[in-house]
Write a structure and sequence with these properties.
Elements lengths: L17 E7 L1 H12 L7 E2 L1 E7 L26 E3 L31 H5 L4 E2 L8 E8 L5 E12 L17 H7 L2 E10 L4 H15 L7 H13 L9 E6 L4 E4 L16 H5 L2 H12 L3 E6 L2 H15 L7 E3 L16 E6 L3 H7 L4 E4 L4 E4 L14 H12 L5 H4 L9 H31 L6 E2 L4 E2 L1 H6 L3 H12 L3 H20 L10 E2 L2 E2 L7 H6 L4 H10 L43 E4 L9 H20 L6 H17 L3 H9 L1 H4 L6 H10 L2 H9 L1 H10 L14 E2 L9 H11 L5 H11 L9 H19 L5 H5 L9 E2 L3 E3 L2 E7 L3 E6 L4 E7 L3 E11 L2 E10 L5 E4 L5 H21 L3 H20 L4 H6 L4 H4 L7 H6 E5 L13 E5 L15 E5 L4 E6 L4 E8 L5 E8 L2 E6 L4 E5 L4 E6 L6 E5 L9 E6 L3 E6 L5 E6 L7 E5 L2 E5 L3 E6 L4 E6 L11 E7 ...
Parallel strand pairs: 9-20, 11-13, 11-14, 12-13, 17-21
Antiparallel strand pairs: 1-3, 1-8, 2-5, 3-4, 6-7, 7-8, 9-10, 14-15, 16-17, 18-19, 22-24, 23-24, 24-25, 25-26, 27-28, 28-29, 30-57, 31-32, 32-33, 33-34, 35-36, 36-37, 37-38, 39-40, 40-41, 41-42, 43-44, 44-45, 45-46, 47-48, 48-49, 49-50, 51-52, 52-53, 53-54, 55-56, 56-57
GO molecular function: guanyl-nucleotide exchange factor activity
Subunit structure: Forms oligomers. Interacts with 6 of the 7 known isoforms of 14-3-3 proteins.
Subcellular location: Cytoplasm
């Protein structure tokens, strides 16, 4: 693409922000020399200053006659470097007189006045002989909290004879002659400031620079530093992902590692340093101090360790973030910073330890040199640092102890490296592997600490029930959680802890484990939570456990319950016996992800426009060459090359080419798409360039989507508030919100019935006392159920997934005296005396439930009678005051089970369970004569059982029902269904090999079921926010989803993530077509509503052909015999894959009497027939493919009011829509035999219209319903 003359722009993600040379001024050195000559005075100190500053860009106009191009560099009126004025004029490599510091544009977040103190935190001391070069690290924070990072290298030069050579020998090699000539040596420092924490890489770079500086003359120092800074300013930071950059700094090959993903930090330091300095127990203490946001000060005699160790601890906390002051190095003049009253993390030299300990109160003092953690006064005697929860601590300690922290041991079997860079690379590879293992260990520590947080967090309303969470902790751990919860970041505590567990799943397990979610039965959410028989059997019966269970019974606002005494735990983590932790294991040896390197081309000097252009050209050529060698499976690596090439072309001023490269990120990895950079780029473009964009379809769409789209969506408020009981009367809407926040129940319809039950009388509101009583009754019942302990013989008679939801008081029954227990499956009697199990009945086996009275002497005792189908005898229980409640509950469960069996919908049982427990809570709340009447308002299935009958044909054909909206507050419509067959791949997990059902819900939500068990495989994830119209499996590991927002989203079936998008359509994508019968199609056709048809190469994701259907609204398409059959509403058009019209079926030719349109069609090639449905017609029409002009055959659909979808399965056509059943509108499915052309079955499928159909290997048909029901039915195909 031709572009105007390039304009040089600054590199957006360059490594270098600023480079500075610091040291003592000539005047102060002269005074120091005089002091040093006095008898008895050694190593006099002087004040450091900034001597020179170098700020990019360094491209200057070529002033030599060798340059032929007349290119003007930006910012030419402002010098990119300055040097302090010398006493004598000095020859400079560049022309012009050095100006003042104001001549240079210093980055806003760099304070040049404070920089000398940080670069020489111990001061500048003149030495009698040169000392060893030293490096330390800085972290600079601006007022907005943005951090920049500095690496400082100190080296020594002789004070006298500035034109002499300093041979660079270390002080132990210096000759007496050199010392006598120089007299004394002064330190200088080179400081590199970057926006990225490349500690090791920049340390290596400065080490290479020092080899040149120590061999050059004094007047050449600035030239070398400027050349060094110029190189770094032309190196981009690599994008997140598997690609690292390598640059030859001579003599070292410098590696700039990328971050693992956009949410992860850049890690370019040795994460095992704290593990070498501290014991694992002490590491836990430091992490606890950070989690509880203490005022912390690190101490060391080595300035470098202060920053490195502190940064390691910040990485250990990821994805949690330290939100407070972070100053890892304080010079002697900055010690007053530690008097700050707020939380902070700072670092001081060990020489100041006693001073800080005596002067400051309440500080956590961490001595890196001896590995100790102490407190300054007045907490010296009693360190108020809570212990990490015991099991998490033991696991962490044992896994740290299993790490191999010494490279010598790990590489002892390797031969010696004879090449410097080879040894350097071997060390880097070992460190990267160890860093990954340490990250896994620390991430699992956080997960073990906060694993249960998600169970008490309401995502929809962003409410965390902290009181309930604390009650689930053992007493000795509660202090830890109280301090973590009570710190300033309490509101961010919950979402961050959720992200911890999410990160652990994604990075460590790479497995969909539900250990951190609510308990489940058959993959569906259970509300409320109860321990299963399996968990009950595993549960310990120790005194600690019993005490813990008793605590859970206490409710919020009840402060007077005494905590039972438990065995005190070890006060010091050093005394924990890690070996005794049987559940612990060694650190997981997780294989690191594959990484790749790209070598940056050489940078040639002098740094004039031509040389920079040559460097950028070489860079692009190398990137393009590397891209040409990549296969279709290397999209992640290809995306990084596109990103880098886009950056370089942007710097060259080739804006259109840069935007095209960024556009390709949609097809390769959208996560690294630089939206802000694209916006800024477009803002810089001239009118002719914007006009060229309008002529380029890809860029036009890009600009429209990123730049010209209407106002930005408001940022989601992640603030989490603690759950509180209401303090004022609640109307219906407020009541719904409060109940959902409490986590009791989410379903809005159930909450409406609960409101009617609690709102006694004519007042349609709930007073706060009633809500509090109801909440406490619910939680008490939940706690009592947690405390149920069944004898082993009883548990053996129950299924492992059964839960005891309700226990009666001890009553007399026909089977003896005992307590009636209710699970989701049955009623049984827990006999007293010698505990035993007597089954009363399963809910399926109940024939009749009656509430009567039994006469005893002169008393009439309320009695519950249950008649079973398989038994002649009737079970009776003298439940007395509980009888009416149990009557309501058993009838509701009985009806729920019957309807669950009839409708093949197990969720009905869960809904019935929730209802009966709400009945129990309502009766406990009201405690009046009207309580039973109020509780009866919650009854649903008992009232609806006669209205929800299922026709015999439907019952025989229906196999199962699932609910993708489980756990949502409202049902959501099923827009699209897709079944993907299973496949066996040794490299994949077993669950990945199972067949799956993909359900597209409203607003871009997708839920995935394991079709082998019909359990949820992947909970809801989103692709965009618009309605999803179509789905297809394009490859074994890819599902394509077409959206109303005109984007095709590509889902990776293994990671269940969407990192690729196809954005070539301009209107809603309505259909995706692959060749039938192909297991791995090479081509996919996509259709959009505006009539555009695109053919995609599945491997390259490139458009191989495109055509436009003129003047029509495209609705769907089919591929048949190499032609596309396109339904346009008014006609069905047959075109070749190149867009050539073959034939057309116009609807007005067959329907002259009234206006209508095609809704959908199916082709029957064997019979050469086209079957179609039309709007406003309750019939299916059949045309002959031999002559579409003939009048169609008609098949009437009885009681049908609407047709919405149709599919072909074997020799049948399944038609979904809406129709009447027993006078009520229902979702119906009609099964038509294609040979006899008659309706074989009329299936009453759903409570709402059938919106979509799909086939599962021609063995089952799956139907999805509208938003009134939002369920999926699985039908058997005969």
């Amino acid at each position: 693409m031709e572009e105007p003359a390039p304009r040089h722009l600054s590199l957006p993600s360059r490594l270098l922000e600023l480079c500075a040379l610091l040291g003592a001024s000539r005047d102060s050195l002269r005074g120091a020399e005089q002091v040093a000559q006095k008898k008895g005075v050694r190593n006099p100190s002087v004040d450091p200053e900034v001597l020179s500053v170098f700020v990019p860009p360094f491209v200057s106009k070529d002033e030599s006659r060798a340059a032929t191009a007349d290119c003007t560099a930006p910012c030419k009126s402002r010098r990119r470097s300055f040097r302090k004025k010398r006493e004598k004029p000095r020859p400079e490599h560049w022309k012009g007189v050095a100006g003042d510091p104001e001549d240079v544009s210093i980055p806003n977040d760099v304070d040049l006045l404070a920089l000398p103190q940080l670069c020489f935190p111990g001061g500048v001391c003149v030495a009698s002989e040169p000392e060893e070069d030293r490096v330390h690290f800085l972290v600079l924070t601006d007022v907005c909290g943005n951090r920049t990072y500095g690496v400082v290298a100190q080296y020594y030069r002789p004070l006298h004879d500035e034109y002499c050579f300093y041979n660079g020998k270390a002080h132990w090699e210096s000759s007496l002659q050199t010392v006598s000539m120089a007299g004394c040596f002064v330190p200088f420092a080179v400081c590199v400031i970057s926006r990225y924490p490349y500690y090791n890489a920049l340390k290596d770079c400065l080490s290479c620079l020092l080899t040149h500086l120590k061999l050059c003359k004094d007047f050449e120092v600035d030239d070398h530093i400027k050349e060094f800074a110029a190189k770094l300013s032309l190196i981009p930071s690599p994008p997140p992902g598997p690609l690292h950059l390598i640059f030859n700094m001579k003599p070292l090959q410098i590696v700039f590692p990328s971050r693992v993903d956009p949410e992860s930090p850049i890690i370019d330091l040795d994460l095992h340093l704290p593990l070498l300095c501290f014991s694992p127990e002490t590491v836990l203490q430091v992490l606890t101090c950070m989690l509880t946001e203490q005022r912390m000060v690190f101490f060391s005699s080595d300035w470098a360790l202060l920053t490195l160790v502190a940064e390691c601890f910040l990485v250990y906390l990821h994805p949690l973030q330290w939100q407070h002051t972070f100053v890892p190095i304080l010079s002697g003049q900055m010690l007053d910073f530690i008097m700050a009253p707020t939380s902070f993390l700072m670092g001081c030299h060990l020489d100041h330890f006693e001073e800080v300990s005596e002067e400051a109160d309440g500080l956590i003092l961490i001595n890196i040199d001896n590995g100790s953690v102490t407190c300054s006064k007045p907490l010296e005697d009693s360190m108020d640092i809570p212990d990490v929860p015991l099991l998490a601590a033991q696991t962490f300690i044992q896994r740290v102890q299993s790490l191999q922290l010494h490279q010598e041991l790990d590489l002892a079997h390797c031969s010696s490296s004879t090449d410097l860079n080879e040894g350097h690379g071997r060390r880097h590879a070992w460190q990267q592997k160890l860093n990954g293992q340490i990250q896994q260990v620390t991430l699992q520590l956080l997960v073990n600490i906060f694993r249960e947080v998600k169970n008490h967090l309401n995502y929809e309303h962003r409410v965390f029930n902290s009181e309930e969470f604390l009650k689930t902790r053992v007493p000795e751990d509660q202090q830890f959680y109280k301090q973590v919860r009570g710190v300033g970041c309490a509101c961010s505590f919950s979402p961050l802890c959720v992200s911890v567990s999410d990160s652990f799943h994604n990075k460590v397990l790479q497995h969909r484990c539900i250990a951190f979610s609510f308990p489940r039965i058959n993959g569906m959410l259970i509300s409320p939570r109860r321990p299963t028989i399996e968990k009950m059997a595993l549960r310990g019966s120790s005194p600690l456990h019993v005490a813990h269970r008793r605590i859970v019974v206490s409710m919020p606002n009840l402060q007077d319950i005494a905590t039972p005494e438990v065995q005190p735990r070890n006060s010091s983590l050093r005394k924990v016996d890690a070996v005794s932790c049987k559940g612990c294991s060694k650190a997981q040896n997780v294989a690191p992800k594959s990484s790749y390197t790209f070598k940056i081309p050489e940078i040639h000097f002098p740094l004039v426009t031509q040389c920079v252009d040559a460097y950028y050209t070489d860079f692009i050529e190398l990137l393009s060459k590397a891209m040409s060698f990549l296969g279709p499976d290397s999209s992640a690596l290809l995306a990084r090359y596109f990103y880098l090439r886009g950056l370089i072309q942007l710097v060259q001023g080739r804006l259109l080419n840069a935007l095209l490269d960024f556009q390709n990120l949609y097809k390769t990895d959208i996560r690294i798409f630089p939206a802000d950079l694209v916006k800024r780029t477009v803002a810089l473009m001239s009118a002719p360039e914007r006009a060229k964009i309008e002529q380029t379809p890809e860029l036009k769409r890009l600009i429209n989507q990123v730049v010209d789209k209407p106002g930005e969506v408001a940022k989601v408020d992640d603030h989490v508030k603690n759950f509180e009981l209401p303090k004022k009367h609640l109307q219906l809407d407020d009541f719904v919100k409060r109940v959902q926040e409490s986590g009791i129940v989410k379903d809005t319809d159930i909450i409406h019935r609960l409101f009617d039950a609690l709102a006694v009388g004519h007042q349609k509101q709930i007073d706060p006392e009633t809500f509090r009583d109801f909440y406490n009754c619910w939680k008490e019942a939940e706690a009592e159920a947690q405390d149920v302990s069944l004898p082993s013989p009883v548990m053996e008679r129950l299924d492992k997934n059964e839960c005891v939801y309700k226990l009666s008081s001890s009553v007399k029954t026909t089977h003896g005296v005992g307590k009636i227990a209710m699970t989701q499956k049955r009623l049984f009697l827990l006999t007293e005396g010698r505990p035993g199990y007597v089954e009363i009945s399963t809910f399926r086996n109940i024939e009749e439930v009656r509430n009567t009275t039994a006469v005893f002497l002169l008393l009439r005792i309320p009695t519950l009678k249950i008649k079973m189908v398989s038994k002649k005898e009737v079970f009776e229980a003298n439940l007395k005051s509980e009888c009416d409640l149990w009557h309501l509950m058993v009838k509701e469960m009985w009806a729920g089970k019957k309807l669950a069996d009839d409708h093949k919908d197990p969720q009905y049982i869960q809904q019935a369970l929730t209802t009966v427990l709400l009945m129990d809570a309502v009766v406990g709340t009201l405690q009046s004569s009207n309580a039973i009447c109020a509780a009866s308002k919650l009854s649903y299935f008992d009232k609806m059982k006669n209205e929800m009958s299922v026709p015999k044909t439907t019952s025989e054909t229906l196999k199962h029902k699932i609910n993708p909206s489980a756990g949502e507050t409202f049902p959501q419509a099923i827009d699209v269904l897709l079944y993907t067959p299973g496949h066996l791949d040794p490299a994949e997990k077993i669950t990945d090999a199972h067949p799956k059902l993909w359900c597209a819900l409203s607003e871009g939500k997708v839920v995935v079921f394991d079709a082998s068990s019909w359990t949820i495989y992947q909970h809801c994830f989103k692709v965009g926010t618009a309605k999803l119209n179509c789905m297809v499996m394009a490859e074994q590991n890819q599902v394509w989803i077409g959206s109303e927002d005109s984007v095709i989203y590509i889902i990776n079936v293994h990671s269940m993530s969407c990192h690729k998008q196809l954005t070539d359509h301009r209107a809603s994508v309505v259909d995706l077509i692959v060749q039938g019968g192909e297991k791995a199609p090479s081509e996919v056709y996509s259709c959009s509503r505006d009539g555009m048809v695109l053919a995609w190469n599945v491997s390259t994701l490139r458009v191989t052909s495109r055509f436009q259907l003129p003047g029509c609204t495209l609705m769907s398409a089919r591929l048949h015999q190499g032609c596309l059959w396109c339904c346009t509403g008014n006609s069905i058009v047959v075109v070749t894959t190149n867009g050539c019209l073959r034939q057309e079926l116009k609807i007005e030719e067959s329907f002259c009497e009234m206006s209508t349109s095609f809704l959908g069609f199916q082709l029957i090639p064997e019979q050469e027939q086209l079957w179609a449905a039309c709007a406003a017609y309750s019939k299916v029409y059949i045309w002959s493919l031999q002559d579409l002009a003939q009048a169609p055959q008609r098949i009437p659909l009885q009681d049908c009011t609407e047709v919405s979808c149709m599919i072909r399965v074997k020799r049948q056509i399944w038609v979904g829509g809406r129709g009447l059943s027993q006078g009520q509108p229902k979702g119906k499915v009609y099964v038509i035999d294609t040979e006899t052309k008659t309706v074989d079955k009329e299936l009453v499928a759903h409570a709402d219209a059938v919106t979509t159909l799909c086939s599962a290997e021609d063995r089952y048909v799956l139907s999805g319903s509208g938003r009134e029901e939002g369920k999926v039915a699985i039908w058997k195909v005969e």
